[in-house]
Description:
single chain; mainly alpha; 4-stranded antiparallel β-sheet; 47% helix; globular; binds (2R)-2-(alpha-D-glucopyranosyloxy)-3-hydroxypropanoic acid
Amino acid sequence: MNYTNYKNQREFRLAAKAVLANNWTGQFTKPAPHLYPHQWNWDSAFIAIGYANYDLNKAMMELDALFKGQWSNGMVPQIVFRSETADSGQYFPGADFWQTKRSTHAVQEPRTSGITMPPVHGFALWHIYERAADKDMAFDFLQLLFPKVMALHRYLYEHRDFTDEGLVHIIHPWESGMDNSPLWDQVLNTIDTADLDIPAYERKDLQSKKAKLHRPNDTDYDRYVYLVDLFRKLNYNDSAIYEQSPFVVQDPCFNALLIYSNDCLIKIAELLGEDVSELIGWNELAIYSMNEKLWNEESGRYDAWDLKKDQRMPSLSVGGLIPMLANVPDQDQAESMLKTLLGEGFIGPDDQPLHLCPTYSFMGAEFNPEKYWRGPVWVNINWLLYHGLLNYDFKETAEQIKTETLSLLDQHGFYEYFDPNKNETKDKGYGTDQFSWSAALCIDFLSMK
Ligand code: 9WN
């Protein structure tokens, strides 16, 4: 590959390492210098995978710090606030707003938010182990973290699967990690903000010049805040939230990441001499239900399910293609998912070619190449797709995704997300610059043979 901004691969890698060094706090890595001043759940897992290529110690410290925020019921929170960076003034909602003291399960130090994020830690552990130069040290770390990740998965199957389908539900778009995806519109639109008593709040994410173009709009935020307020009032009780909240959704991406993490935990358990039967049981039911309930034959992808209305949520989100990562589809299903990925929706029409992979199909009316999860390319999603495609031997497309990701990072910088339009030549990097997982997964892509 020829680089535009760097002399060679070594320089590119050094620049990525500098982003992580700059965001390192001594205990964990901030997702970005200003916009995200705390520790975020799935960010830390992707960041740790990047570190494992050159600094195992930091990879371990990163996940260790995250699990310091784990609740007594096993839940690992979306955000861990720390005293050094807990200045609630920089980010909304800060620790004070969450009021997690209302839950009997929450840890009080460090303080945390009251919801979770995609369960990526099981597979992060495995990828760290695979990359670790010092396998003995990594083995000890697996021993330490294995029971904690198991506790998270037990929490999810016990408190987020009340229909006993092996499919867990999320209760907030922030839990999906793809917060503003058009996938959530259908359910969020049922929350009529005009009729609701939403607590006063001030957004802190609109400081940069173009933030309004890229970040979610105010109505989205009202709905996000309404849900958090409801959870506070219900003392973060999962059964009460399941009964009373309008947003209770089985997300195929979240569940695929859980299944893949279960798979990786099976490999770890075998290494550690632990019992694997619980993990095998979870995955058998989960894979069966994903295919019975969420597979959409017509559109060649998996859909989400609205548990409140008990109905399918057909959508053109890239999340429906992630189950390849967990070997959920069989080879025929995967072939039709590949067709979807290489169809006009994701590679664009001839006169408007797109970089792989937009987070939402170009064919959807809601597609927006500039807005957050409504079209732009995100590096972590491409990393997940890359590994999923390799499971089915779709090497050419996997390579294409890797090369296009690296070239976006090289040409535009370590941004949070990128305009997928190939015809767009300038300023394609959106959101915040110096974004940690973009740098970490760049290092990981560069380290692959
Ligand atoms: C809310 C930190 C996080 C990512 C999410 C991304 C964004 C937060 C926000 O930033 O979400 O969690 O304030 O928009 O959507 O995936 O983990 O990088």
